[in-house]
Design a protein that fits this description.
The chain has about 110 residues and is mainly beta. The protein has no helices and eight strands.
């Protein structure tokens, strides 16, 4: 499991696969209420957290491989509604770098 604090400190998001199938699902937990939400839960689709910014509160950037399994297209995920909006298509098999969003800055693990 991987998890990240959002820049405003109100929510934790985490990615977890189910039963070792490598299809990562994104969840969020409201820190004040403990309410959990499932943001992505599509069969055979993997999510990657790309980053977040305090300048764009209420949303994060994620990668989803729902168009072509080898490519993680970039989406802006609205955390209130759970609705992803396509930001850009990816045409490379290069892995998106892991992100740290606790400070609102994206940092690569590579």
């Amino acid at each position: 499991m991987e998890y990240w604090w959002l820049p405003d400190g109100t929510r934790i998001v985490y990615a977890q696969d189910r039963g070792g199938n490598e299809n990562w699902v994104l969840y969020g937990v409201d820190v004040a209420t403990g309410t959990q939400i499932t943001y992505t839960d599509t069969e055979k689709v993997t999510v990657r957290v790309i980053g977040a910014s305090p300048k764009v509160p209420g949303s994060i950037l994620i990668g989803l491989n729902n168009r072509v399994p080898q490519f993680h297209d970039v989406y802006r995920l609205d955390l209130a509604t759970g609705k992803p909006t396509l930001v850009g298509l990816t045409f490379t098999t290069a892995r998106l770098p892991a992100a740290s969003i606790s400070s609102g800055r994206r940092t690569s693990s590579r």
